[in-house]
Amino acid sequence: MRSTKLLVGALVGALISTSAMADGSVATVNGVAIPQSKMDMIVKQLAERGQKDSPELRDRIKQQLVTNEVLYQDAVKKGVDKSADVQSQLDAAKQQIVVSTYVNNFVKANPVSDADVQKEYDRVIKANFAGKEYHARHILVKTEAEANDILAQLKKGKKFDDLAKAKSIDTQSGAQGGDLGWSSPTNYVPEFSAAMTKLTKGQITQTPVKTQFGYHIIKLEDVRDAKAPPLDQVKGEISQQLERQKVEKMVSDLRAKATVQ
After folding, report:
1. Cα–Cα distance list, 181 to 127, 133, 168, 217, 222 (Å)
2. What's the mean pLDDT when you consider all of the chain?
3. How many CB atoms lie within 10 A of CB 136?
């Protein structure tokens, strides 16, 4: 008799286990099934953050889901879910989830095409890289007298790099011998750009250049035709920007149709 009961118990346990698997649940707590979809959602979210899927990870998630379900069931028994504060938070969470899903669906239904990306690349990126780029160095000081003294030292054979390191109050470029790298003239204040673009390769300004930052001695290292980054390098950034623009227009159109009092 005892062995029969054990056999029946084992069969019932197997049937329950098979039923849970068929229903797509990872566990049951007091008869309430925890759906496999919950596990899959968490695994997907963790994978997007770089977490590797593994049996150990899934077991940890399962244990947490079981703990959450135990706590949730007891909280419901005590009426916690009925409180005004909880209901308000649930409403806010529901709205946020629905809105987020709606926006994601809109983006999927209105994808940015390769043609759109190419057009934006030509309009913005290539246009901004038209003209020349300049590779310059500078020494920045507070007074005109200091700038004139530096010019005198340069005429005596002092190295520009050494003077920049020792005298420039622009500590970032000064540490690099005054090197500003390659850049468009539009990235500098007008007075600096005007003086820099008049120089020829290797030439140094003969007089201090005054700007809002102080007095500059500028040396032009080289000039080249501006070159836009390749499309593949900026394609992702452009696509994201165009997606944002589509979403912003959709939101703007909906707000324009809405009655807001």
Report:
1. 21, 10, 16, 16, 10
2. 90
3. 26
Which pair of structure tokens corresponds to residue 256?
A: 């324009």
Residue in this structure with the two tokens 């920049």, named with its chain if needed: 164
Nearest Cα to 196, choosing from 222, 175, 177, 171? 222
Query: pLDDT digit string (tens) for 176-222?
Result: 999 999 998 989 999 999 999 999 999 999 999 999 999 999 999 99
Token pair recorded at residue 113: 């095409």
Q: Do the Cβ atoms of 167 and 233 come closer than 8 Å?
A: no
Q: Which CATH number is associated with domain 131-225?
A: 3.10.50.40
What band does 124 get if pLDDT is binned at 50, 70 and 90?
Answer: confident
Ramachandran class of 126: left when φ > 0, alpha when ψ lies in -120 to 50, beta otherwise: alpha
End-to-end, the C-alpha distance of the chain in Å comes to 76
Dihedrals phi, psi of 219, to nearest 5 degrees? -125, 130
Distance CA(63)–CA(86), nearest Å, equals: 25
Show Cβ contacts of residue 183 under 8 Å, excluding neighbours closer than 6 positions. 133, 134, 135, 136
Residues 76, 11: Cα–Cα separation, whole Å? 33
